[in-house]
Each structure stands twice: as structure tokens, then as C-alpha cells.
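for the record, two folds in this file. i put them one after another cuz i was lazy. first one right below, seq on top, C-alpha cells after. the second one comes after a little note so u can tell where it starts
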Amino acid sequence: MSVSTALDDLRARVRGRVVTPADPGYDALRVVVLGGTDPRPAVVVRPLDDADVAAAVTFARDAGLPLAVRSGGHSGAGHGTVDDGLVVDLRDLTALDVDPGARTAWVEAGLTAGAVTAATAAHGLAVGFGDTGSVGVSGITLGGGVGYLSRAHGLTVDNLLAADVVLADGRVVRADAEQHPDLFWALRGGGGNFGVVTRMQFRLHPLDGVVGGMLLLPATAPAVAGFLAATRAAPDELSAIVNVMPCPPLPFVPAEHHGSLTIMALVCWSGPAEDADAVLAPLRALGEPLADLVRPVPYPELFPPADPEYHPTAVSRTLLLDEVDLPLAERVVARLEDADGMRVVQLRALGGAIARVDPAATAYAHRSARLMGNVAAFVDGPADRVRRAEWVAGTAALLDQGDPGVYVNFLADEGQERVRAAYPGATWDRLAAVKATYDPGNLFRRNQNVPPAG
């Protein structure tokens, strides 16, 4: 069968769009968030239902095409697309059914975190979907889901009740605590290794609003160490993302501070509003704020819309760690001050509800990790990459406290050893066994891949 005949057959089987390089709109569809790449898939399928997904998956399998699955397109390794292969682009799967009485929601995989957060907020309910509105709900969920509500209500996977999955053989199954429980366990942290998740059911939590926003402080070492210590000591309803970085030219910050090293903290208090001032006081006391935009807001306001034309090119490294004390904070601040260009050390307090889940209950097993670190440097052209990569590696080594653990959703294209570090102990072997059951041919390998056992 010729390529054109095969594509005609695929189009006949799919209700959604089938787009090739010769079709209008191809260039817009092939782009993901990651910059510095020029992906050129052979075909992009925009399914409208499970049958479309199954048709695309079996077409790729039978044709021997590499297969990628795309939702929000935020993979740090660019896994949402693939050269000379087939992309299943889920962005037309956007059905959402909220049951306020049961406090649950069925969410299709093409929706973004911002869209779902806004829809559930209309009922005074929420589930944690990270901190970026344009992230796809399926990608963040399958890798674990760390965000503003994680310390209060657990990871996104801790609130996943069921998932509909298209498998490598084209079957559609529901995975939950009763049906395919081995697959349900693996989906909660094991990424896209096991099939195409098209629909998910989540547990929702009451949330009328939060006290949150940006708190910008001068980046002294005592302030960095103190911010993390105060966040960890606070009630679980407090979350903070601490970005230590040069201050961008923000219009609400005096110009003399632009470019100076700052703590750009994104803060969220989801507890009683009347307690916010007392909880936030230790953070505000760490320095004279350059900007304090923390205020009572509807929760969806913490998920502003993203610029669709923004495709950053950066080198990054993520790791889990136990503590950032004053001596380490001093070294981090000094290293940032000695560098040039846009660079950031991001630190997040974990714990709380995350740590109260048995490490064996889900494929996200790093339940005892206290902090997450991410180091990034933005790249100005190909010639700049080596220098930035060396700075990132050196800074990550500074933070490294001997635990090789990583959060899989923040991994770039870093090799199999780093993927294994995301799944400690027996978790890796258990995932490989599930993979052998549901995808023995490793069709779903365009991801942070766990090969099938055997």
C-alpha cells in the first residue's frame, strides 16, 4: 500500500483532522513549547474520541512509525512531537463534567490546567494541577503533579480516581482501583509509558479562593534559607515556589532593581483567609519587599494565560534535596551573582500531604523528599549552549546532597540513568513488569521511557 493510500485509509477511519506536511496548518501543529527545536512529524492526528486515538495508535504501530503523544506540549525533552513519525495531538479532547455533589470531575486529556481550574472554581472546588495554566492535564498528572495545592491535598495523582486508556493493541480500558489496578498504579507517576490516556476522573476539594501572588525580595542568603525554612514550618496550606534569579524589567519594580538578584516567590495560601497575614508574616519579614502582590484572589488567577509564541530555549537540571541551610544558600547566591544572562535556581518546599502517602501506593515514590530544586539557564543561540550547560551542571552539583532522586516531569533529555532515578527501589521493576503486560513492544517509548521487563 502506498503512503498516500495508507493516509487516505487513516482519514477514512478518523473523525478528527489528519494533517501532513502538505496540509494547511501543519507548521502550527508541529510546534511544542520547547524552543531550539524544529520537529517535523510525518503526520499529526487530532482525535475527537477514543476510536480516533485507537485508529492513530494502530496505524503508527502497523506502519512502524515512531509515535508521540501531545497534550499541552510542555515536555522538557520535547516528547510531544517526533521527527518522521505520528503525533497524537489530544488538544481537541476538551469535554469536562464536574459533579459538585460528589466533588469529582471527569476531564478529557486535551484540556489545560488553567481551563480545568477555572471550570472547577465556578463550583468552589479545585484539584491541584501544578502552577502553569497552559500545561496539559494529562502530562502533569501522569508524571505526578507538583503544584500549589500539593502540600495541602497531595499530588495530582493522589487525587486521580480513574483513567480511560488506549493501549498499544488498540483496546480501550478503564483503570481504577478495581479494574486493571496494576495499570492504575503505574499511571500515577509512570508517565506516558503505558498508553494514551484520554479521560481522567479526579477528586475535588472545597476552595473558594486563596491568598496568593508574587512576593519579590532581595536575594540574600539568609532570606533564601529563611524563606524555605519558614514555608516548611508553616501549615500545609502554604505553598511557595522560590525563584532565585535576576529581576526582570517588571513595570511594578523600580528600575534600579532590574537585573539585581532577587527572590521571586510565587506564594499560595489555601487555608482560612483570616489566617493569611500571620502565616505570611515570617516571609515578609525576611527583607524589604521590592514588590508584594500577595492578596486574596480567586484560585484561577494564579494560572495566567501563557504567550503561545513563547518558546524558551534553556538548559536545565532537576533534583530532590533535604535542606538549603545558610552555608548552602550563600554558595547558591554567590554562584548566581558570578554568572551572566538569565539564570534561575528554583526551590520548592514539598512534604505535607505528599509525604503522608505510602511510597508504594503510586509510581511516584519520592514521598519523603523535603525540597525540589531546578536549575536553569536560558540559551542565546547554539554557540551559547555549552557554556550554559556547564554552569547548570556545576550549580546542580552544588545542590546535590547524595540522593539521586528526580521528579520525572521536570527531566529534560538526560539519559536512562536519570530516568531510573525517578523510580527508586522496587518501583522501577514494578513499572517494567506493568509495561511488559500492556506495551510489550514498547510502542509508547517517546517519553521518559521504562522498557518492558524481559
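(here's the note) second protein begins now
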Amino acid sequence: MTNSAGGPSGIITRSYKSGSIIYFENDKSEYIYILKAGKVVLTSLKLDTGEEVKEEVRQGEFFGVKSALGKYPREETAQTIGNTMVLVLTPADFERLVLKNANVVRKMLRVFSNQLRRVVKMERSVLGEGEIVNPDSELFKLGEYYYRAGVLKQAQYAYKRYMEYYPDGEYASQAMQRIKGIDAGEPPPEGIGFHDDAPASPRRAASVDDELTLAESSGPADMLDFDDDSHDEGAGGAAESTRTALSDEMDDFLSDPGAEGLDDFSIDSGRGDSPRELDEAAESSFAKGNYALALDYYQKIVSLNRTAGPDEKNIFEKALFQAGRCHMELGKPKEALELLSRILRSSPGSAYVKSAIFNIGAIFESVNQKDKAITYYNKVLNMSPKDKLNGDALN
């Protein structure tokens, strides 16, 4: 990659061809990026399952911020989809930009808040806990998880933080033993793997009116058929790069009505939320038991019908499934049945198919249509991978 000359105060505008790698996971760099045009996909691995996760960067969004400011390796690989243009900032450039633009501050706070919420949720799932308990216990359990998973660097960090904050805590002696063992190069326990126990949707009794209405109709799910069955960062083809003054470049970009993203977090913005933002709001409402509000958010996602990229497609399918669960919680089995059946018809390869089938069985059970319920539960029993849903279907 070649860059034109530029001074210390300014940003770089880089153009990439389709399929170029902006940076790889574990790269070390101080650069922060803003997507100006085109498309970028961030690929990482879920810590608890090893599953590959793809996240699409929206136009105007930052990426690479946490690792750059925190001075630690990249946590994901950034790759372009189609011809793409990005703005590249140093931490000093980023600081000047933040000081000049309140919208940027609001955007970053909201993005980081949402990311932190997802991290905490994943941590609770990994630890097998529901509600947060004592912080000292949480910290030690986190170290134990990493230790048993063989991720010793993170385990040692958690244990050392435990000893720093809770030197007289309940698990102090165990934490110290773990630290000494890791320092001595002792291997972690073997034969302990990851677990992926997805909770089933709670069953809710239907009203008499709903029960009669559902019983009189075959329902959309009734007719469904199933089958059983180290390098330099930026290597990868940047075509051109020009350096301009930070203030001029950013003023042009932020004032460009076609550059979506940087201003759409303004409180007075009329652009509306993106599917990802709606999903986060819906998830928060559902977790608080506000199913009516969560349903409203999920229905907005469904109405947008955005399925172009893998991230949008997953959010759309999740919205269909979760909207069905909201209807179940609100005692509306017919509406729930319609949405869950739509997943099976329109997205047979979706990750939500198995859960949708289980919940269809739960709906029929809730209106005393036992034979139909058993049919769907039996279908779940024969589906892979074997997980908690298989056991719930058996019971």
C-alpha cells in the first residue's frame, strides 16, 4: 500500500478493492477506521462456542477503536465487500474529532454501551448463571472458565485481578494456586469442553378465545413438511491513499447528507433506527419483561425486511422468532404460530428453526392439542445438535 505525503495532523483516505483485508485478527496497530463508502465485514469467533460471527459495519461507523485506544491486538478480521473507501485516523486525530463533534461522542457511547451489554450477556451464558451475584465470585468464576478452556493468559489476568481486589476473599487461596500453576507451566484440566444450552421459551397458557380460534383452524404450521435429516496491516490490495487535513476532511464528511451513520445517533434525528439498534432495544425490553414494547421493536425489524448481508439476515430471522415468543408471552398463540411457521417456510436453514419447531409444539400443547404438540416435540428430538431443547422436548 502506498500513501501520499501528509503531516502529523490529518487523516488518510484509503480505497480498497473487493475482498481486501484491512487488518487481521491479532494485528497490532494504532489506526482507527471510519467506513466512508462501500461495505466492511468484521469476522471473529465466539469465545464460548468457537462459532464464527460476522458483523457488518454501517456507513459512517467506526471500527478498530477499542484495540487502537486500548493498545491491544485486533479482536477481529476486517474485510471489504465490493469497492470500499475508509478514513484512517490516529488516536490524536480521533481525539480532535471527538472534541469537535458531539454527535461522534453520542455515537461512540451508544455503540460501546450496546457492545458491553452483549459481552455481559455472553459472560452470563458462559458461566451458566442467570442473575449477577457477588462480584468477587463472578471474577473468580470468569478466571475458572478461561482456565478450564485452556485460555491461560486471560485466566491469569482474571486471577491476578481477583487477588488485587479481594486478597482476603473466599477464593483467594485457589486463585493464588492457579496463578502459581500457570507461571510454572502446568497444563489446565483436560476433557472439559464448551456447552451450548439454549434456553427454551417459557410456555404460557392461552386465553379461552384464542384456544377456540386456534383449535378451529388448521393453522399455518399444520401443513408444514419437514425433512429429517504476521504481516503488515492493510496488506490485501488498497488501490490508493491520499492524506488531507483532518478538519477539512471530517467537516466535509460529517456535513455530507449521503454519509449515513455519524449523525444518526442524534436525539433529534429523523432517520430512524437501524435493524441492529432496534434489535438491541427489543432485546433489552424482552429481558425486562416488557413484551409489548419488545414486540413493537421486532415488528419494525420485520417490516424493514433487510436481508442483504449475513448480519441483517440473522437479525431479521431473530426478529421473526422473538416476535413469536412475544406473542406467546402475551397470550396470543395464533399470532405466535403464524410468525414461527413463517421461519420454517421462508428460512429453512435458519439457526432458529429448531427453537421455532419446539415453540410450535408448546403452542399446540397450551391449547390442549396434545397430538399435534407431540408431533413437533418428536421432530425436535430427532434434530441435531443435541442440546437442552432435545431434553425439554422429551419431557
